[in-house]
Structures are given as structure tokens and as C-alpha cells.
Amino acid sequence: MELKLLNDQGQSSSNIAAPDTIFGRDYNEALIHQVVVAYQANARSGNRKQKDREEVHHTTKKPWRQKGTGRARAGMSSSPLWRGGGRIFPNSPDENFSHKVNKKMYRAGLCSILSQLAREGRLSVIESLSVDAPKTKLLSQKLKDMGLDSVLVITDSLDENLLLASRNLPNVLICEPRHADPVSLVFYKKILITKLALAKIEEMLA
């Protein structure tokens, strides 16, 4: 598999060889969907709390007598049928949203995503990406000159200037290879990988 090698101006200078085992996989939509859903589900925290009829603050007095009023029978105003009553099956903070995905499946899903990105021309390799100062304007202008508006940059090591300059850009994310998640790979329009980061990805997913 051949990937485009970009220069500092975002122009394709040459191609770089990449292993087909990572960047030449078939598109497996079902596996990618499972990996993305599992990643998002595992990021959820069980912080929702609803009250059942035992926990709502209501009197236990019978609203009206059982018979003779012409209305339906009612025993408590905390009934789930009443407005302001307790929930029948309330959400609890210890709710578990996690999905189990095997390491082999997760790696295969990442390889399938990377392969599809390479086929669509959304993935490129760059020698290096850096800015002289931690200024958002510098990085924004640099990416604009390269024709990039929504980009995920995977670097071998986090440069402090680059990281600080990217924090105020909503459509730019800088991360290391071990933090490249399937949701970000699918979300951003372009993926830039430095040459050293490419070697780390090959070692991780081999």
C-alpha cells in the first residue's frame, strides 16, 4: 500500500510504503460499527438518577375514599400513573453501559478504518508538523495553507507548542498513536500521520 507523503505546504512530494496488513484491509462495516459503538458506550458514566415511588416526597394518605366518588381508585399520589409520581423502572447511578470488545477485534476495526481512509484519500503522511510558538494563529494559518479545515494529527510525541496552539481550534486534534481512537478517526475529514508515528502505529497494530 502506498500513502501520500506531504511536505510543509501540504503538497504531495512522494509516496511512502505502508504494510497491507494495516492499510490494505477490506472494509468491514459491521466490525467498525461495533467498535465505534463500544468505544462511545464505554466512555459513558452512570450518573443518571431517577426516583421510584418509594423515594418521591409525597404523603402516604389515600387521596380520596375507595368508592362513591365516581373517579378511579387511588391509593397514593406517588403512583407512577400520577404526574409527579415515581418512575416504574428508574435509572440508577450504578447503571453499566460498557460493551466488551476483544483486543483482536479492536485492532482489526482500527485497521479497517485506516484502510478505508487511505482508499478515500483522507489519510496522508507528513514528515513533521510543528509551530515556532504556542500561538493558535500560527497553526491555523499553517493548516489553512495546507488546505486543511478538519484534521486529526497523529504525532510520535506531543510537542508543547503544537498542543497549546491547537486547543482553541474546534476541528483540530493532536494526539499520540496510542490515543488515536476509532471515533476520532471516523469524525475528522483528514488524518495526518508523521513518519515516526506511522512506525509506531505499524508496531502497535502488527
Task: Explain what the structure shows.
This protein has helices at 20-23, 29-42, 103-120, 136-145, 160-166, 182-187, 195-205, and strands at residues 2-6, 12-17, 123-126, 151-154, 172-175, 190-194. 34% of the residues lie in helices and 14% in strands. The model has no long low-confidence stretch (mean pLDDT 92). The protein folds into two domains: 2-33 and 97-205, Ribosomal protein L4/L1 (Ribosomal Protein L4, Chain: A, 3-Layer(aba) Sandwich); 45-95, no CATH class. It contains seven helices and six strands, in the order ββαααβαβαβαβα. The two termini are 15 Å apart. It has a six-stranded mixed β-sheet with strand order 2-1-3-6-4-5.
Q: State mean pLDDT (0 to 100 scale).
A: 92
Q: Tell me about the biggest sheet? A: 6 strands, mixed
Helix content: 25-40%
Strand line-up of the largest beta sheet: 2-1-3-6-4-5
The low-confidence runs, each spanning 5 or more residues with pLDDT under 50, are: none
Write the CATH architecture name of the largest domain.
3-Layer(aba) Sandwich
CATH topology of the largest domain: Ribosomal Protein L4, Chain: A
* Helix/sheet category: alpha/beta
The number of distinct β-strands equals 6
What's the SSE pattern? EEHHHEHEHEHEH
Number of domains: 2
> What proportion of the residues form beta strands (DSSP E)?
5-15%
Which oligomeric form is depicted? single chain
Could you name the CATH class of the largest domain? Alpha Beta
Alpha carbon gap, first and last residue: 15 Å
Q: Can you tell me the CATH superfamily of the largest domain?
A: Ribosomal protein L4/L1
